[in-house]
Amino acid sequence: MAEKLSVLYVDDEESLQDLAKIFLEKTGVFTVDTASSPLEAMNQTESKIFDAIVSDYQMPEMDGIEFLQSVRHSGSDIPFILFTGRGREEVVIQALNEGADFYLQK
Q: What residues contact residue 52 under an 8 Å CB cut-off, 6+ apart?
């Protein structure tokens, strides 16, 4: 059996964290750690290696693009998926220009 992919899922809405964790782990392909803020997520990336980060865009202390910028400025090229309930084209363009690998709408 292949090794599972380790995903860090970042969202300030705990109910969505739980739902995503259950859904992704049910596939048998992923193990999912969650963080309720980008700062918590950055602390987790210092102590564990993840195969990918999935992050919400709109969060209280810093948005998903600012989080993405922090990840990229640290030198990491980890796959980064940004998602949001907002379908604004300028957010998509900025996310991709900052190094997001994929963009999803909720």
A: 5, 6, 7, 8, 78, 79, 80, 81
The full set of domain ranges for the chain reads 5-105
C-beta atoms surrounding 14 within 10 Å: 10
Q: Rounded to the nearest 5°, which phi and psi values hold at 38?
A: -60, -35
Q: What is the pLDDT of residue 66?
A: 97
Q: What is the mean pLDDT of residues 9-23?
A: 94
What fold characterizes domain 5-105? Rossmann fold (3.40.50)
DSSP 36-82: SSHHHHHHHHHHS--SEEEEES--SSS-HHHHHHHHHHTT----EEE
Residue 2 has pLDDT above 90, yes or no: no
Give the confidence band of 32 by pLDDT, cuts at 50, 70, 90.
very high
